[in-house]
């Protein structure tokens, strides 16, 4: 059984808060110039990297640092270093799918580190680098975000220009609580396309358990299908007014699904914390390559945001000190949690489960969530298996491996 335990930083948990900047017109012009020159420099470095097939950050730094400083006179040294790191990161994430040099948008987000910005928390201003010098820009935000910036260690930030507003997304380090032992077992969550999430308690999410205007999974599917038809109709029309409407609608479905995944993960973590349980989800990495879908179902499958829900649940569980595991998803909807019978015949229909061994019947997604919960208990026992050395099993296995020989075999 493949078990993956949640991975978090040892000394704290990273999180992101968003601040709204309030620059003067002159400061806004300076920030615009900084964003444009950084993105133009990144595109210039990207072309060099693609032509020379130099995609690692160290080799790319040797290749592009001095040429980009000469090409863009207003670009600072640290801004050039960050642009090189952005290019290397872009190719590292999407190298296999690239057929041409990556181009950075003129107003794309620009990362800032401690050498490109400084904070005055008392005055609530942040000093940002621009080609004409640093500008102290006032910031505001939600009370909880301002409190986090005032009290927590700050990391890197992204400067974003979006629809006429200047935003700063800042990484903060939260204190890491101890993970509590799941004394009452695990809360299993089955993820799917028809039903986004079903727990072994029988809760179907989204549903009545979640607030908001989304009434259920059928409502989500109808909204996404309606927006797909709307986008296709406007793209086919191709007029300037149609493109203007497409720009206004851009990102709306993504924001809806992100909000739903936040609500689902928050509900799951709160329920697990309230009942003293851990959280178990299926490890669905690579599922799109394993599943053969009909061409009419491919858009739905590739728009399935299961990885986002896993990551949201992971970091929320870490914040709350709730145990979190990813378990093997194989045959979770075909196995009986009572007698262990595994058969394709146990699924007479998509939403029905009827065990051919013991006769257990129920909704297939609910049965799958029960199997996920059982595998979570078994996986936690394996991960935390006691040993005479007193070390946890994961650390014991790591330290018991012999060192690799220098000469090889």
Radius of gyration: 25 Å
For the termini, the CA-CA separation is 30 Å
General form: globular
Please tell me the total number of domains.
Answer: 2
Uncertain regions: pLDDT < 50 for 5+ in a row?
Answer: 1-10, 398-409
Chain-averaged pLDDT: 86
Give the strand tally. Answer: 15
Sheet-strand content, in percent, reads: 15-25%
Work out the helicity level. 40-55%
Strand order of the largest sheet: 3-7-8-2-6-5-4
Topology as H/E string? Answer: EEHHHEEEEHEEEEEHHHEHHHEEEHH
What is the count of DSSP helices, taking H or I runs of 4+ residues? 12
For the sheet with most strands, the description reads: 7 strands, antiparallel
| Secondary-structure content class | alpha+beta
Descriptive account of the structure:
By secondary structure, the chain is an alpha+beta fold. It folds into two domains: 13-174, no CATH class; 186-216 and 254-383, 2-Layer Sandwich (Nucleotidyltransferase, domain 5). The chain has helices at 25-52, 57-71, 77-94, 143-151, 217-237, 240-249, 252-275, 287-290, 298-302, 306-320, 364-383, 393-400, and strands at 4-5, 13-21, 110-112, 117-120, 125-128, 135-140, 154-162, 165-174, 186-191, 197-199, 204-205, 278-282, 324-327, 352-354, 361-363. The protein has a seven-stranded antiparallel β-sheet with strand order 3-7-8-2-6-5-4. A hairpin with a 6-residue loop joins β14 and β15. It starts with a strand and ends in a 9-residue tail after the last helix. The model is unreliable at 1-10 and 398-409 (pLDDT under 50). This is IS605 OrfB family transposase.
